[in-house]
C-alpha cells in the first residue's frame, strides 16, 4: 500500500534521502559537507543537480525497494548505481538545456561528430597527442571549430588571421582568463590567471620592471653570466660522461629567475631554495594534470582525491610561505634610491601595490613561467644540436669569428652573429614549448568569422598551428635556422612568428627569455661540442604537460680546444 498520513510520508521521504546519501557519501556528515560546500562556493548549477539527483534517486529506490526488499539484491549497491545514473542524466539534460537557450538560431562553429553525454569530445582528445588531434580537426573543420569538453564549450582558433582578429583587434573581448581550480587555490591572486583592473595593475608593474632591467643590459647579463660560469663548472666536472641535462638546467635557470624576481636574497645553493624549486615544480605539474576538473567540476566532490588536490594545497602553502619569508627579508633591507633592481623591489617602491598574497602569487607566477619555458626550450636546443651536427658546426664557426677566445657573449654581440640569432628563432618556432598558450574566455557574446561565440566560451589559441603552417613557413617540420636570414645575410622576423603570442596577453618575460637563450647557447657552443650518448638510442619525443617538453635523454659535453683569436 502507499503512504497513509502526512507524518509517515515525511518520515519515509527523509529516510529515502538519508539512505541514498549514506551510500554516495559514505556518511551523512560527508554529504552535509559536500552540499554545504557546493552551495557556499557558488556552484548553484552543480548543487542543483546534486540535490535533484538525490531526491529522484531516493524516490526510485523507495519504489524499487517495495518490490525487491525481500530479494538478495544489495540495496546499498543499487542505491549507488541509481544515483550515478540519475546524476549523469540530469547533468547532461540541464547542461544541454542551458546551452541551447543561448545559441538558438545562431550559427556556431562546426564541431566533430559523436559528442558523448557528460564527457563530450574528451575521448577524441585522448586518442592521440593533443597537438596532432587539433591539427587533424583543423584539416577537417577549418580554422575555427568547436569542442564540447564536459559542460564547457571550447572554441579552437587556428589561423594567424583569426588569432590576430580575436586577440589584437578584439582584445578587450578575448583576453580574459576562465575561472579555474588553480585560481581558487591562489585565492584570485597572481598575474597569469587574473582579469580586470587588478590584473592590469600587476602587469604594468611587472612590464615596467622587466623593461627597465632589459634596458640596463649589464645588470641582466651579470646575473646570467654568473650562472653560465656555474653551468660550465658543473659540465666540466662530468669529464665527458653522459648526463641528463634537465637538472643542470633547472639549477642555473631557477637561480637566474630567482634573482630577477627577488634579487640576491635568493641563496640558490641552500637546501631551502632547492626544496622550494622542487616543490614548485611538483605543484605546477600536479595542477596541469588536474586541469580536467575545470571541465568536469563535479569530479572535485568525489570522496576519493583522484587529482592530489590535498597534496597541491599543502605544497602551495609551503612555497607561498617561502616566498613570503623572502619578502619579509627584503622589507628589512634598505631599498636605496634609483630604479628597482628586481621585481620585488619594484613592488616595494610602488606605494599603491598590494604587499600581500597578491604580490606573493605574482612572484610565484613569474617564477613558474620563466623556469618551465626556458628549461624546456634549452632542453630542445640540446636535442637539435645533437640531431643536426652541421648546424652546431656552423654556430661554432660564427661564434669563433665573432668572439675572442674565453670571452663570454653579451647581447651587443647579437649583430655580429646572425646565424646564432636565427638558430634561437628557429628553436622557438620548432620546439614551440607553449603551443596553445593558456586558456582564454570571451567576456560577452561575440562573433568571429561569422560564427557566434557565446559569453563564457573557453578559447584555445592554437599557436602551434600558426608556427607549423606551410603557408607561413616552408617545410615547417624541418629545422632550418636559415629561413630567418634574408638574401643580404640579415635576420628578419615574419609577422606570423608568434612564439610569445601577441595582444594584451603577450608574454611579459620575452626579452629576459631571449637573453637567457642567446647567452647560454652562445657560451655553450663556444666552449663545448654536444653529442648524444652512444647507448641512448631512443628517439626523443615531445609531450605536452605544462609545456611541450622533450622526453628524457642523455648527452655528452666535449670540451673544445679553441685557440682562435676572434675579433680584435
Automatic annotation (TrEMBL):
Record-level GO cellular component terms: cytoplasm
One GO biological process term: xenobiotic metabolic process
SUPFAM superfamilies listed in its UniProt record: Cytochrome P450
Membrane-spanning parts: 43-63, 75-94
UniProt KW keywords: Heme, Iron, Membrane, Metal-binding, Monooxygenase, Oxidoreductase, Transmembrane, Transmembrane helix
Cofactor (UniProt): heme
Binding, heme: 507
GO molecular function: heme binding; iron ion binding; oxidoreductase activity, acting on paired donors, with incorporation or reduction of molecular oxygen, reduced flavin or flavoprotein as one donor, and incorporation of one atom of oxygen; steroid hydroxylase activity
Domain of life: Eukaryota
Residue ranges the record marks as coiled coil: none
Pfam families cross-referenced by the UniProt entry: p450 (PF00067)
Presence of the UniProt keyword Transmembrane helix in the record: yes
Record-stated family: Belongs to the cytochrome P450 family.
Name of the protein in its database record: Cytochrome P450 2.00E+01
Organism: Mizuhopecten yessoensis (Japanese scallop)
Amino acid at each position: 500500500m502507499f503512504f497513509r498520513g502526512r507524518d509517515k510520508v515525511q518520515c519515509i521521504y527523509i529516510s529515502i534521502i538519508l539512505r541514498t546519501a549514506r551510500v554516495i557519501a559514505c556518511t551523512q556528515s560527508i554529504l552535509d559537507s559536500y552540499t554545504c560546500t557546493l552551495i557556499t562556493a557558488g556552484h548553484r548549477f552543480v548543487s542543483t543537480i546534486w540535490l535533484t539527483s538525490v531526491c529522484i534517486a531516493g524516490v526510485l529506490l523507495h519504489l524499487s525497494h517495495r518490490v525487491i526488499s525481500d530479494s538478495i539484491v544489495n540495496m546499498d549497491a543499487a542505491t549507488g548505481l541509481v544515483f550515478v545514473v540519475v546524476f549523469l542524466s540530469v547533468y547532461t539534460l540541464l547542461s544541454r538545456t542551458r546551452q541551447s537557450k543561448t545559441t538558438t538560431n545562431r550559427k556556431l562553429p562546426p564541431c566533430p561528430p559523436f559528442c558523448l553525454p557528460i564527457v563530450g569530445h574528451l575521448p577524441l582528445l585522448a586518442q592521440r597527442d593533443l597537438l596532432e588531434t587539433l591539427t587533424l580537426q583543423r584539416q577537417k573543420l577549418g580554422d575555427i571549430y568547436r569542442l564540447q569538453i564536459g559542460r564547457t564549450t571550447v572554441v579552437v582558433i587556428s589561423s594567424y588571421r583569426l588569432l590576430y582578429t580575436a586577440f589584437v583587434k578584439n582584445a578587450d573581448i578575448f583576453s580574459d582568463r576562465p575561472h579555474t581550480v588553480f585560481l581558487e587555490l591562489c585565492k584570485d591572486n597572481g598575474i597569469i590567471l587574473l582579469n580586470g583592473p587588478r590584473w592590469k595593475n600587476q602587469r604594468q608593474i611587472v612590464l615596467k620592471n622587466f623593461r627597465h632591467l632589459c634596458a640596463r643590459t649589464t645588470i641582466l647579463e651579470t646575473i646570467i653570466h654568473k650562472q653560465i660560469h656555474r653551468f660550465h663548472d658543473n659540465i666540466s666536472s662530468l669529464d665527458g660522461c653522459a648526463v641528463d641535462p634537465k637538472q643542470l638546467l633547472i639549477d642555473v635557470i631557477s637561480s637566474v629567475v630567482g634573482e630577477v624576481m627577488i634579487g640576491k636574497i635568493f641563496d640558490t645553493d641552500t637546501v631551502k631554495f632547492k626544496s622550494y624549486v622542487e616543490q614548485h615544480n611538483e605543484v605546477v605539474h600536479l595542477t596541469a594534470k588536474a586541469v580536467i576538473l575545470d571541465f568536469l567540476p563535479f569530479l572535485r566532490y568525489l570522496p576519493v582525491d583522484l587529482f592530489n588536490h590535498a597534496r597541491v594545497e599543502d605544497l602551495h602553502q609551503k612555497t607561498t610561505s617561502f616566498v613570503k619569508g623572502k619578502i619579509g627579508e627584503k622589507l628589512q633591507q634598505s631599498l636605496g634610491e634609483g630604479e628597482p633592481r628586481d621585481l620585488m623591489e619594484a613592488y616595494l617602491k610602488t606605494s599603491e601595490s598590494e604587499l600581500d598574497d597578491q604580490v606573493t602569487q605574482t612572484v610565484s607566477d613569474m617564477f613558474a613561467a620563466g623556469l618551465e619555458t626556458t628549461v624546456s626550450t634549452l632542453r630542445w636546443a640540446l636535442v637539435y644540436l645533437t640531431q643536426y651536427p652541421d648546424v652546431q658546426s656552423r654556430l661554432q664557426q660564427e661564434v669563433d669569428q665573432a668572439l675572442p677566445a674565453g670571452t663570454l657573449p653579451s647581447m651587443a654581440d647579437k649583430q655580429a652573429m646572425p646565424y646564432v640569432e636565427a638558430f634561437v628563432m628557429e628553436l622557438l618556432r620548432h620546439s614551440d614549448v607553449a603551443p596553445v598558450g593558456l586558456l582564454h574566455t570571451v567576456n560577452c557574446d561575440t562573433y568571429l568569422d561569422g560564427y557566434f561565440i557565446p559569453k563564457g566560451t573557453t578559447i584555445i589559441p592554437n599557436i602551434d598551428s600558426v608556427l607549423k603552417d606551410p603557408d607561413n613557413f616552408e617545410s615547417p617540420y624541418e629545422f632550418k635556422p636559415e629561413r630567418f636570414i634574408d638574401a643580404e645575410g640579415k635576420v628578419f622576423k615574419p609577422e606570423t612568428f608568434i612564439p610569445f603570442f601577441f595582444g594584451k596577453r603577450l608574454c611579459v618575460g620575452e626579452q629576459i627569455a631571449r637573453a637567457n637563450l642567446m647567452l647560454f647557447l652562445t657560451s655553450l657552443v663556444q666552449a663545448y661540442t654536444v653529442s648524444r650518448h652512444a647507448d641512448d638510442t631512443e628517439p626523443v619525443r615531445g609531450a605536452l604537460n605544462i609545456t611541450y617538453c622533450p622526453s628524457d635523454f642523455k648527452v655528452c659535453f666535449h670540451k673544445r680546444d679553441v685557440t682562435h683569436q676572434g675579433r680584435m
